[in-house]
Amino acid sequence: MFGRIPRLPIDVVFRHALTNDAVLDHCEFVSRLKHDLSEAARIARQNSRTEQARQARYYDRKAKGSPLTFGDRVLLANRECIEWESQPAPSKV
After folding, report:
1. Which of 14, 19, 34, 76, CA to CA, is 20 to 30 A from 51?
2. pLDDT tens digits for range 49-83
C-alpha cells in the first residue's frame, strides 16, 4: 500500500520461523506446531465443558416441571397425523 509491499501475517510467522535459532528444521517446526495446536484444542475443550456445566446449573436452577396426575388432559404429538387434516385433541393421562 502506498508504494510498499504489503506484509501479511503469514510472512511474519515464516520470517520469525526462519530467523529463529530455536527452530532448526521443518520437522521440528511441524511437531511444535502440532503440539501447540493440540494444547490449544485441549484448553478450548476444557473451557467449553466448564462453561457448559455452568450454564446447565443456571438453567436447571430456574427450570420447573409440571407435575401430572391421573385425569389431567394433555396434548400428545401424533407423528402419523398430518397437521392440516385433523386438529390435535387432548387426551387423559
Report:
1. 34
2. 999 999 999 998 988 888 888 888 887 776 566 55
